[in-house]
Amino acid sequence: MDQLSALLFGSSDPSLLTSALQRFAQSIYRNPLNLILLLAIVYVAFPLVRPSSPKSSRWTPTVAEARSHLAAPSDRYTYLPPNHPDTVEWTKYTPRTLAIYDGTGTTDQDGSRILLAINRKVFDVTKGKNFYGPGGPYGNFAGRDASRGMAKQSFDLEMLTPLDKPIDKLEDLTASEVKNMKEWEGHFTGKYGIVGELIDETEA
């Protein structure tokens, strides 16, 4: 009894506390159920002593505010996007019609946009006009089928098929060159997006 009183109300003898802790540890070792009960007590008691979380600063509209918004939407409470995303009109291009879009025109109709094709897919690269526009390092590909040039990592004019010839079937490319072309195709798909397909004159 004296030991229990000293443990509860304090004691100057540190050996008493050590002895009590040892007995407590031994009781858990002999009967693991005691440990389970202790964990259950801690689990139940912890939320009671834990500091409450600060009130959320998220704005929640009242019923009156919600009804008011339905009648006249405000900038504070709206699901409408600020701008409608640009739409893309899917178009089929032949080598001749694609050649118009080389970035030298002043309107969409006469070629202010810059398009090029890789593996029959047509990409709008207008936002990369410093690279693909007139005078750019890859300007030869503007308005043309760039498949062979991308495959061979060459930007020479001889990589381009004449406009009066059928689309290059690329049958003589090596596996490594085909891989190069596919990698460029994936790069353009992720960066610029596909806006159409390249077809032969006979398919138009």
From TrEMBL:
InterPro entries: Cyt_B5-like_heme/steroid-bd (IPR001199), Cyt_B5-like_heme/steroid_sf (IPR036400), MAPR/NEUFC/NENF-like (IPR050577). GO terms for cellular component: endomembrane system; endoplasmic reticulum; membrane. The lineage of its organism: Eukaryota, Fungi, Dikarya, Basidiomycota, Ustilaginomycotina. This is Cytochrome b5 heme-binding domain-containing protein. Its main location: endoplasmic reticulum. Coiled coil: none annotated. Residues 93-199 form the Cytochrome b5 heme-binding domain. It comes from Mycosarcoma maydis. Gene3D superfamilies: Cytochrome b5-like heme/steroid binding domain. It is found in: Endoplasmic reticulum. Keywords: Endoplasmic reticulum, Heme, Iron, Metal-binding. GO terms for molecular function: heme binding; metal ion binding. Belongs to the cytochrome b5 family. MAPR subfamily.
